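Sample 3 of the quickstart, ligand adenosine-5'-triphosphate:
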Amino acid sequence: MIEVRNLTKKFEIVTAVDNISFEIAESEIFGFLGPNGAGKTTTIRMLSTLISPTSGKIIVDGKDPQKDGGYIRSIVGLLTETPGMYEKISGYDNLDYYSSFYNVSDKKRKDNIKKYLKMFDLWDRKDDLAGTYSKGMKQKLALARALIHEPRILFLDEPTAGLDPESAHMVRNFIENLQKEKTTVFLCTHNLEEASSLSDRVCIIKKKIIKIASLTELQNDKKSKKVEIVFKDNARKYMKILRQIKEITDIEAQDNKINISLKNAEIINPVVIKSLVDSGAEILYFNEIKASLEEIYLDLIRKEEK
Ligand code: ATP
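Result:
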């Protein structure tokens, strides 16, 4: 659905995006992550035709933004980081105005405005001026605006920023369900739990691409694995045995549990289990603790900074 080849954007002396390439399939949720100033918003702006690249190629639904910008704008929905709405007209009229740009029948337009205002709990406030809405209400109105023409590609820059926990949960469920309608979602977020629960793949960027992979691939790539061992009795007496295994880089014991970090887990796990059993340990559980996206992200970003 989206193809990006060697894309670069320079603003005078600043290179915001440096030679990035990736592809996104239809109905994929693509998490786009990176520190402040990494080039995320600039990439969204190029993909949604708001600005032109300095060099490189973008293809959206088979079309070139330079030649078919109008078509691309008709199939994308955009929630920007700081969405502006017309503050002196009502929430309803904002949606009515924005949706009038698209080729949608009057009935469909009215139905969609009602659908999204109800979905985002704004129906009771539909006639109030948008300027009187709270921050979270404005964010929900902006999300409704991005969705009003039923876009096939949705660019979301921090969609749950400023939302209360219940609204954020509802928006996440909504994004997840978009897959059923084959909508492709390009999701920028600093909320790594949100990214890990929603994204099919994540792309970590800092001007250049650091990594593109699914969470499972990222977890499997990690050289050092964490394992939790639960014993029938107090765990401390097994520390000595574990310290003799040189691939174990970290050991922490508490009550009947030991957490270890180790390299070459596939080869060393059986060695660990055998050594413990040979010493008389009764092991209740031996589990790999999967790294969170946050741990993986911080690891990758720190390596990049070295
Ligand atoms: P954040 O997480 O803080 O929103 P981001 O990853 O979205 O950051 P961008 O907004 O894409 O980052 O900015 C990338 C770089 O490009 C920054 O150094 C920024 O200052 C610069 N930049 C973005 N837009 C412009 C512009 N119009 N003129 C000059 N520099 C710009």
